Amino acid sequence: MDIHLSIHPSREGWVSFETDPRLTRTKERLHGRCLPCLTSLLEQLKGDPREIALGPAWECWKIVAVVESREEGLELLERFSESHPGQYVYGKMGTGRGRDTVAVMFHTEDAARKDELHRMLREVVGRHFPGRRVFTSRACGDPYERLLGPWQEWAEKSPVRYPEQVARVRADLREALYGRR
């Protein structure tokens, strides 16, 4: 397989993947975009926020295939690599909170690349994994959608639609970022 997996899963159990065996872009993205984005969100959740400025989350896209198991996810990555040799990809694979299925999630910060990856992934899934779902989302659905609702309704500054979720999301972010609530 021309797509390489990280050795260590995240605290939440996600495993990163990337064309580069050193996962260079994944590491750069984590430290340059993801951590600052989630830290900014945590800062915005102090007090009683009425809206959230999405910042880098606005240009953060995920193209996701939902499969039945980790083994099926690995096979999907292998089939993608065979079907689209030379395509540089990066993302993560794992389960969401309370889910039995596995998400294979490709990342990009470019809207045109998002559409291209969606088309390629849908083609591979349709050929090798019929009946499996492929979709696109913006930013991290958890926590952003828990606060703002469906991403299709967001703006660069979006109103908090679910203020009752603020305290829980704040606690979850503290745990994810710092290992404590």
Question: How does this structure look, described?
Answer:
By secondary structure, the chain is an alpha+beta fold. The chain has one domain. Helices cover 41% and strands 20% of the residues. The chain has a 6-stranded antiparallel β-sheet with strand order 1-2-5-6-4-7, with helices on both faces. Strands 3-8 form a two-stranded antiparallel sheet.
Give me some keywords for this one:
5 helices; 181 residues; alpha+beta; two-stranded antiparallel sheet; globular; six-stranded antiparallel β-sheet
Give a brief description:
The chain is of the alpha+beta class and 181 residues long.
Task: Spell out the blueprint of helices and strands.
Layout: E1 4-5, E2 15-18, H1 24-44, E3 51-53, E4 61-67, H2 70-83, E5 90-94, E6 102-108, H3 111-128, E7 133-138, H4 141-148, E8 157-159, H5 166-178
Antiparallel strand pairs: 1-2, 2-5, 3-8, 4-6, 4-7, 5-6
